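User: What would this chain look like folded?
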Amino acid sequence: MDIDTFTRREKMLKLREELLAVEEDRLAGRAGTTPDELDSYLESIIDEVEHGKKASI
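Assistant: Here's the prediction, encoded as structure tokens.
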């Protein structure tokens, strides 16, 4: 596996871990982010993964 593929895989695993944490918080009734905030965050992560841009959070 080349370094670019490895880096992309690691970013995707991090995203999955973050999404699972958010879902656990939601199921436990803890306050989270609005759907618009989440959508913006996910778009920035996807953009980072696809284009190598740093996410702006």
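Residues 15 and 42 are 9 Å apart (CA to CA). If you want, I can go into more detail on any region.
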